[in-house]
Amino acid sequence: MLTKSDCEIDFTKPASEVHNKVRGLQTWPVATTTILGKKTKIHRTVHTDFNAAGKAGEIMESDKRLIVCCGDGKCLEILELQPEGKKRMDAKAFLAGNSIKKGTII
Predict the structure, then answer these.
(1) 22, 42, 84, 100: least buried by Cβ within 10 Å?
(2) Is the peptide bond between 104 and the residue preceding it cis, with omega within 30 degrees of 0?
(3) 69 in Cβ contact with 31 (< 8 Å)
(4) How far apart, in whole angstroms, are the C-alpha atoms of residue 40 and residue 16?
(5) Tens-place pLDDT, residues 81-97
(6) In angstroms, rounded to a whole number, what is the distance separating the alpha carbons of residues 105 and 93?
(7) In this predicted structure, what is the pLDDT of residue 3?
């Protein structure tokens, strides 16, 4: 039986495990993380071939795409998310209203 405490994403895990957790927790209870100090639901991710060595949970790109590095050095692109108190939106819409600097750890 899943509970909301099982939903927190651990970006120190491999990218495939994080991606599968996001997929597995759809549509309830939904995977979560903290972005800009607010609890944020992550609805969709996709594997990316973005090449950059970063720390686990580090934002690697935040201009038009939201790419985060995982524990195995591979990156995931967050496609859809839902900030606390807001509607579900794509990453581009989220980035249009929120300034996240490259290198931020989530």
Answers:
(1) 84
(2) no
(3) no
(4) 20
(5) 999 999 999 999 999 99
(6) 20
(7) 83
pLDDT of residue 53: 81
CB 58 within 8 A of CB 101: no
Q: What is the 3-state secondary structure (H, E, C) of the chain?
A: CCCHHHCECCCCCCHHHHHHHHHHCCCCCCEEEEECCEEEEEEEEEEECCCCCCCCCEEEECCCCEEEECCCCCEEEEEEEEECCCCCEEHHHHHHHCCCCCCCEC
* Integer Cα distance of 8 and 13 in angstroms: 12
